[in-house]
Amino acid sequence: xxxxxxxxxxxxxxxxxxxxxxxxxxxxxxxxxxxxxxxxxxxxxxxxxxxxxxxxxxxxxxxxxxxxxxxxxxxxxxxxxxxxxxxxxxxxxxxxxxxxxxxxxxxxxxxxxxxxxxxxxxxxxxxxxxxxxxxxxxxxxxxxxxxxxxxxxxxxxxxxxxxxxxxxxxxxxxxxxxxxxxxxxxxxxxxxxxxxxxxxxxxxxxxxxxxxxxxxxxxxxxxxxxxxxxxxxxxxxxxxxxxxxxxxxxxxxxxxxxxxxxx
Length: 263
Fold this sequence. Notes:
Helix content is about 25%, strand content about 20%. It has 7 helices and 9 strands. It is globular and about 60 Å long.
C-alpha cells in the first residue's frame, strides 16, 4: 500500500482556493469604441520589476479569419515567418504590397498588465495596452518636474485609477488618471485577496512565442495554404523544429488568440 499511497496527491481546501482564484480571473478587459473605461492597473508582485510584460504582436485578418501571435523576431527570440512575409512584400516596390505589409504583417508593441475593471471590482484580469497608452502612462510616472511630480499609479494604497478610452481613429486611445488616489480595495483583507488573485494571472505566459515552423504553418493556413507553404507564403525555408521558445524570460510554452486582440 505504501507504493500506492506515494503515487497520488490530494485535493483539499488549498486546491479549491487556487481554483476559485483562477475562475475569478482570466478573461480580458476590453475597450469598446467611444466608451471610457475605469480600470486600476495593479502593481508588480514581489520579485517583479514591472507591472506588465512588454511584447510585440502580429494581428492578421484575412476575410473572417484572424490570427494574433507574439513576434519572435521583435522579441529577440528567433526568426519570424510573418516578418519575412512583411519583408518580402515591402521589397517588391509595389505600393499595394507595401500597404498590405504594413496593414497585416507589421508587429505592434503591446504591454500586458494585471488590472481591475472597476465595474467588476472583485476580478483580476489581463489587459492589453497599446504603445500610445503605455507612453501616456509613463508620462504619469515620470511627471514633468518641477511643476508636475510623477506618481506610481499602481500603488496598492495610494495609487490612481485610470480612465482609458478607445477612439477608433488616430491617436486611437486616450488615458488619464483620476484626480484622487485610492487603494486597490477598501480593506486590508480585500487588498490581500486581490494579491492572491493576481498570482493566477501569469504575465509570463502572455510573452511566450511559437517556434518558426508552427508560425509558418499557421500563417500558411490563414492565407489559404492549408497548413503547407503556398503563395504568398511560399519560399520559406523551414527552420529546425522544437518546443516553443520563451521570450523575455518566459518559460517554454505558447499562447494564441484566434480573435482580434482584446485591446
